[in-house]
Amino acid sequence: MFTINENYLKLPGSYLFSTIAKKVNAYQSGNPEAEILRLGIGDVTQPLAPAIIEALHKAVDEMADQETFRGYAPDLGYEFLRTAIANHDYRNRGCDIAADEIFVSDGAKCDSGNIQEIFGLNNKIAVCDPVYPVYVDTNVMAGRTGNYNPETGSFDGMIYMPCMEENNFVPEFPKETPDIIYLCFPNNPTGATITREQLQEWVDYANRVGAVIIYDAAYEAYITEEDIPHSIYECKDARNCAIELHSFSKNAGFTGVRLGYTVVPKDLKCGDVKLHDLWARRHGTKYNGAPYIVQRAGEAVYSETGKAQLKAQVDYYMRNASVIYEGLKNAGYSVSGGINAPYVWLKTPDHMSSWDFFDKLLHEANVVGTPGSGFGAHGEGYFRLSAFGTYENTVKAVERIAKM
Ligand code: MLT
């Protein structure tokens, strides 16, 4: 008789964004005339930039020709894309990362969920609270935590690092020493940022205690201020302790196209074992590479035309972020984020719970957002609005919320 991975049973409910989608669909079925405005999941709405479309068309034509047709992609990614990434995202920023330390994948969500596989089950995991749920859920599935405690809204055995107004939503070193630390900046969900100096302190800490930092840089394209690091490798000695995750979803609108990459420096070791070798082994065994046409589209992200078009796209979303931030602030809400990130984090009014505010917003304004408590216990009493909608819908949504 077979058995199941009982760790899955520890997970309460469904994945956050699936739960939200179910609630919204149920509301829409009961209210077919309602015009629902979606500022919940961070999904892009602008079409792919012309430079990317051109690259996709060209690559599709290559696939139609015997001479240029491609089969399986190299499992770690095509050289042309890995080199473009190494040059544009790292070398041009003074970061010492080589093309063969970059692993191309079909997106940062998969990588952020899969990366834990190369670590032992006895590692202590530290996460920010609130946090992108994938880091927690995948470690629960693997069996690195105890049970979910409904009283505290957290899993036993997991180290939670509260990110609150008092610490500008940047975590402090935990009391208990972790082995693996997940950090995401600019942050999802709070939209907060970390300074280069603060991140250097985390790198020094990780090197001191022998921990690995898994740094999710999915939102780096949204940084507008100086002194905010775009990559953890801007910090000294980060090559010895950090893995970095990147997405093409948010900077280039690839949420439906799917492309991402993970950097594992060769200096990152456990004893004599390079984590680079383990991740290469895992990738080679379980993955056949992102499609050629998508990797060509990824390469176009780094062309001069592509860069200019994507800067305009990021500016478009950041105008939405400012509409949300200013509009809600003027309406009396306490807001943060939205300056270096496409998410605005607001306090629910009158100490309302995050889910009660979600229902109120859906029913009274027909606006969807994401309840802060869905990201962790310290997200309770908060709410996230995404700037990835269209400008028109964003303006309308903010007007409706302000009138409530
Ligand atoms: C979010 O809304 O938090 C993101 O879209 C989720 C993701 O990128 O997977």
List strands and helices in order, with pairings.
Layout: H1 16-30, E1 37-38, H2 50-63, H3 79-90, E2 102-105, H4 108-114, E3 125-129, H5 133-142, E4 148-149, E5 154-155, E6 159-162, E7 180-184, H6 196-209, E8 212-216, E9 242-247, H7 249-252, E10 260-263, E11 269-270, E12 273-274, H8 275-286, H9 292-300, H10 304-330, E13 335-337, E14 343-347, H11 354-365, E15 367-368, E16 370-371, E17 382-386, H12 391-403
Parallel strand pairs: 1-15, 3-6, 3-7, 7-8, 8-9
Antiparallel strand pairs: 2-10, 4-5, 9-10, 11-12, 13-14, 14-17, 16-17
Helix pairs in contact: 2-9, 3-9, 4-5, 10-12
Bound molecules: D-malate (MLT).
Describe the structure.
With about 400 residues, this protein is α/β, with parallel strands linked by helices. The chain contains twelve helices and 17 strands. It has helices at about 15-30, 50-65, 80-90, 110-115, 135-140, 195-210, 250, 275-285, 290-300, 305-330, 355-365, 390-404, and strands at about 35-40, 100-105, 125-130, 150, 155, 160, 180-185, 210-215, 240-245, 260-265, 270, 275, 335, 345, 365-370, 370, 380-385. It has a seven-stranded mixed β-sheet, with helices on both faces. Strand 13 and strand 14 (about 345) form a beta hairpin. Helix 2 (about 50-65) packs antiparallel against helix 9 and helix 10 runs parallel beside helix 12 (about 390-404). The longest helix is centred in the last third of the chain and has 27 residues, at about 305-330. The relative contact order is 0.17. The model has no long low-confidence stretch (mean pLDDT about 95). D-malate (MLT) binds near residues 42, 109 and 132.
